[in-house]
């Protein structure tokens, strides 16, 4: 019982010691845990850094090998292009030499052949002489024909003047002006008047005596636009001699058509009419007169109307949209189109064939 009593008396002290020691252990446990975490993080960091250094060394080795390989390949390509350019220059020089020899031979053989040119110039001079003689003969013939036509025209004019002045012919009672009694011989015009026939006036044929068009009546373009009496039948007697004019000429001079001034002929609204005509011509020349609506969807469902200069019934014109140089296949030297620079082996084989063919031609 005494022991139990002592234990009960010390129970509070034991409880305090238990709780105190548990709290101290928790503090040390936290410190140990933090120390372990720090040691693990340091070790893992060293491990990761060592692995990264290993990866860097491996990447450096890979890059070194790859850069060396790519540099060698690029150098091989440069050497290949340089050798191709050297061979192309050599082939071009050989082709120029072959062309020079061939053109010199052709010029000496065909273009600047002295005897051939001499014969050609002699033939040309003979042909020119023949053509010149023919042209001179033709010019003389044309001159004779023109002179003959002029003489005939003058003779016709004299005959017409003689017929027109037939009333000046001499009579038995009164001598004419060309047959003066103070002259020994009569004037040649007197003889011409004796041979000529008098010029008679011809009446114009009237289609309808009683009808005149309203337009000719208003514009006064017809000689019979004014009311006149009916044409009397001709009198069966000889026409009077003298300087009488034709009736049609007199009527035309009497009833001249109306010639209004510019102010009367042109309308007052001429400027407005001209503006309307200009608008109508512009409307006719417009290909597409729809309003341009760039910021709306109104015109999206409408059918596109192509322009006149970019389309036709023979097909669209691609100039300016696809190419800027006209291609004419009839002027090509060969049937094949131009090609780009071929690889070295194909270039060597192609130019080797051309060189062998040029050698065979020479």
Characterize the overall form.
elongated
Largest sheet: none
Helix content: 55-70%
Proportion of β residues? under 5%
Q: Number of helical runs? A: 8
| Strand element count | 0
Distance linking N and C termini: 145 Å
Taking all Cα atoms into account, the compactness measure Rg is: 61 Å
Secondary structure elements and their pairing?
Blueprint: H1 2-111, H2 114-164, H3 188-195, H4 214-219, H5 247-254, H6 262-265, H7 270-285, H8 344-361
Helix pairs in contact: 1-8
Compact summary:
InterPro entries: ASPM (IPR051185), IQ_motif_EF-hand-BS (IPR000048), P-loop_NTPase (IPR027417). The chain is built from eight helices and no strands.
Outline the structure in words.
Helix content is 61%, strand content 0%. The radius of gyration is 61 Å and the shape is elongated. Helix 1 runs parallel beside helix 8. The chain is an all-alpha fold.
Protein traits:
362 residues; mainly alpha; 0% strand; elongated; repeat; coiled coil; calmodulin-binding; calmodulin binding; ASPM
